[in-house]
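Thread amino acids onto this structure.
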């Protein structure tokens, strides 16, 4: 069979046998694909660099009986500066794990793949605060995954919340809620919800415009992480990395 060429991000790698690795490739065209990279752990191996986490490139695969073997890779990006910051590297691994869960094998997922690469690029190469970039990613990822939180009306009773001073946020109920529906909800403010709404309206070219004050940044991030956890939007280990970043 002819080789399969896919632009992919290496999302995960596990040692396999003596000198090989099993890798998970996140692709735009086919979702996540698992493949074996034979002898890739040997010193000087051609695939040694290509089987490191967060490497992006043109991967060449061979398929036989439903199993894939990694044959070659032309590396296009390594996001190398991420490895110089423990906080940024943890965030990068976390959002990759969260994205991977939304991209099962066979699913065309161009939009979330593109969002992930753009986010990794900003984390690696911009001077923007890493949590502002993370807020942009989570807000837009939830939207693309079909789980965007409700912000301008009560998620429970649909009451218009614009102009309401006392607001709450309930991940379990789907977003902002009014005082009458705030069962175990977290108190929040109109400023917090409006800032999050505006982040959702920004195109990717305006990611640098997300510049939040520390207290507001922390409030929005807590809400977004709790929302993802409670609604199962990605693996728990991804959110635990974010909590510890």
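Threaded sequence (245 positions):
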């Amino acid at each position: 069979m002819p080789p399969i060429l896919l632009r992919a991000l290496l999302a995960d790698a596990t040692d396999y046998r003596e000198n090989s690795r099993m890798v998970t490739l996140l692709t735009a065209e086919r979702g996540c694909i698992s493949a074996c990279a034979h002898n890739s752990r040997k010193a000087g191996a051609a695939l040694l660099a290509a089987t490191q986490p967060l490497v992006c490139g043109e991967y060449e695969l061979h398929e036989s009986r439903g199993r894939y073997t990694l044959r070659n890779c032309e590396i296009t990006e390594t996001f190398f500066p991420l490895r110089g910051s423990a906080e940024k590297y943890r965030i990068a691994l976390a959002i990759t794990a969260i994205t991977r869960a939304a991209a099962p094998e066979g699913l065309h997922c161009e939009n979330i793949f593109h969002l992930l690469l753009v986010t990794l690029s900003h984390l690696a190469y911009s001077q923007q605060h890493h949590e502002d970039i993370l807020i942009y990613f989570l807000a837009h990822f939830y939207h693309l995954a079909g789980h965007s939180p409700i912000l301008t009306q009560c998620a429970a009773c649909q009451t218009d919340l614009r102009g309401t001073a006392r607001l709450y946020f309930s991940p379990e109920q789907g977003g902002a809620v009014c005082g009458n529906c705030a069962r175990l909800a977290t108190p929040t403010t109109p400023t917090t919800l409006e800032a999050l709404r505006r982040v959702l309206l920004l195109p990717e070219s305006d990611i640098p415009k997300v510049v939040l004050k520390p207290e507001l940044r922390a409030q929005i991030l807590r809400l977004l992480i709790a929302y993802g956890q409670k609604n199962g939007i990605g693996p728990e280990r991804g959110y635990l990395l974010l909590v510890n970043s």
